[in-house]
Amino acid sequence: MVARRVVYRLLFPAAVVLPIWLFIGRGIVTGDAWTAAGFLVISPVLFLALAIIAGLVTWRPGVRGERAVSIADAVALPVLWLLLIAAAIATHPALAAVTVVALLAMFWFAVWELVTESRRRIRAVMDDVEATLGGARASVPQRPEATDIGEVIVVTSEDVTPIDRGDRTS
Predict the structure, then answer these.
(1) 99 with 87: CB under 8 angstroms?
(2) CA-to-CA distance for 144 and 92, rounded, in angstroms?
(3) Which residue windows are transmembrane per the record (predicted)?
């Protein structure tokens, strides 16, 4: 659970830091002017992609409620982040290709999880509505019915008997 919460907290900071890291590592340190210009264009696109992925992940009600990503997200996101860090250090074209594929796969995985969780929640609500309309109890907890506990004696602190004033006419 701790790792899932750490990944949740790093979603948006990683969307800012990793494009800057890639621009500095590949664009400035290891490249020439054309490479720097290319990564000047790639870095904002990467920022948008990572921000959209972070938004899709945090948009899921289950993630917001627990303030922790799913187990699959806790595995896939750090792998993507490590690939981006490695792509900033190494200049191998295969690494760049794997990183792009991982970024696209993570996007579609986040969309798939959002749709799946939304579908599951909507189906649960519709089942409750159908059950309620059909006369059955919904799965939402109801207040318990009153229980007959038998005779109850009520004790008050005041005398509630009528006062005999003696002025009765018979």
Answers:
(1) yes
(2) 66
(3) 7-24, 36-59, 71-89, 95-115
Cβ neighbors of 112 (< 8 A, separation 6 or more) are none
What's the pTM value of the predicted model, to 2 decimals? 0.73
Contacts of 33 (CB under 8 A, 6+ apart): none
Distance CA 124, CA 116 (A): 12
104's tokens = 């696209």
Lowest mean per-residue pLDDT among 49-58, 67-76, 133-142: 133-142
All structural domains of the chain with their residue ranges: 2-133
SS3 state at 150: coil
Rounded Cα gap, residues 5 and 82, in angstroms: 18
C-beta of residue 60 within 8 angstroms of C-beta of residue 114: yes
Q: Give the burial class of 162: count Cβ atoms within 10 A of its Cβ; 0-12 exposed, 13-18 middle, 19 or more buried.
A: exposed
Torsion sign over Cα 97, 99, 101, 104: negative
149, 151, 157, 158 alpha-carbon torsion, rounded to 10°: 140
Looking at the chain, the whole-number percentage of residues with pLDDT higher than 90 is 56
